[in-house]
Design brief:
Elements lengths: L1 H5 L1 H20 L5 H21 L2 H9 L2 H27 L2 H8 L2 H12 L6 H24 L3 H25 L5 H22 L9 H25 L5 H7 L2 H14 L5 H23 L2
Helix pairs in contact: 2-11, 2-13, 3-5, 3-10, 3-11, 5-9, 5-10, 6-9, 6-13, 6-14, 7-9, 8-14
Amino acid sequence: MKVLEKHPMVMIAIGVIGISLSAIFVKYSDAPSVVTAAYRLLWTVGLMTPVVFGKAQVRAELKQTNGKTIALCAVSGIFLALHFTSWFESLKQTSVASSTAIVCTEVIWVALGFVVFLKGKIGKAALLSIAITVFGSLLIAFSDYSAGGDHLSGDGLALAAAIFSAVYTLIGREVRKGMSTISYTYIVYFFCALVLCIFTAAAGIPFHGYGMSSVVVGLLLAVFSTLLGHSIFSWCLKFLSPSFVSASKLCEPVVAALFAVFLFAEFPALLQIAGGLITIGGVLLYSRVEKNGE
């Protein structure tokens, strides 16, 4: 780890590849979206459990966690479950490029939620960046509408996934003030996995029978996209600025789209590319505005 601490950019690169592979892995799953999401979270909780309970400090923190905090983590887990389910379904209906570009607008919805629910304020520059992001998303939607099929429905699901993720993030901002990252994520992932299993049972969807490939996809999502993706970005915050780490995540739509070109021959249309670049540009602009406190 000492070597990696001297070269955190290596970890950033691994993290970007990890989260970018998420959309690719989902394409290979034959299971319904909610089952694929459940597999991912069950694997994640299973892999984290020995680490969590192997540390006395984490065990002590979990024991001291009060009911209100656990309730907030449960709500956070519900929205994370909704995020995964809607996004995975989006990837079945639209292209990787469109879905990932729209999902990355999460930060914009976090900003709006901060204003509406937490009584925060955003300046004119932030509003401009939000307008740019919305315009880019509309271009993607128009391009997908022209293409026909279920693409527009997939874009809508990706937008819903971004909003669900924003709620999860807003709750996390509050809860994380008094909790360590590992304790918070473990409780949230546990409730997320539980909710996904309940969703599956309530919908009458079989939990098995989709072949080992779908189970393996869940494992790959847990290892690469969760533990070697999002967790690595959390680790990088120790060595790099939050604004840089957030901005680096915007590489996901580009890297994922490149993977999709080579693996699935998903060649985005010119308007789709333009919309994606504008959307990412708007999110990047907002990240800089937030950093400068404008």
